[in-house]
Specification:
about 120 residues, seven-stranded mixed beta sheet
């Protein structure tokens, strides 16, 4: 069973930086991509950033372009999100997502972590 565990959330002042990590554990046959999503109070979960597992190519929501950097370390089965120039509107629970195949003939499954709280004080 694939499991995701986020870490690195916390309280930071506006303009500050924070780095989130997401560790993948458990067996899987292949990983397509991993993403970060976030959910602010009273809002729906929203896409933040994505990294393709094999190529490392990335994609970002417009709201975080130029401020956030997503990366991965294949050897450590870990994904990161470096967040800089944080704003109060970045306050949310940040969730790790992985799209992977658990076995050769299985379909891709979306796996989710439990989330980590990021609070930006103004």
């Amino acid at each position: 069973q694939v499991q995701l565990e986020e870490s690195g959330g916390g309280l930071v002042q506006a303009g500050g930086s924070l780095k989130l990590s997401c560790i993948v554990s458990g067996p899987f046959f292949s990983m397509d991509d991993m993403s970060w999503y976030r959910q602010a109070p009273g809002k729906e979960r929203a896409f933040v950033a994505l990294v393709k597992w094999s190529s490392g190519s990335t994609d970002y929501a417009d709201s975080v372009k130029g401020r956030f950097t997503i990366s991965r370390d294949n050897a450590k089965n870990t994904m990161y999100l470096q967040m800089s120039s944080l704003k109060s509107e970045d306050t949310a629970i940040y969730y790790c997502n992985a799209r992977a195949r658990p076995s050769l003939f299985a379909r891709h499954i979306n796996y989710w972590g439990q989330g980590t709280q990021v609070t930006v004080s103004s």
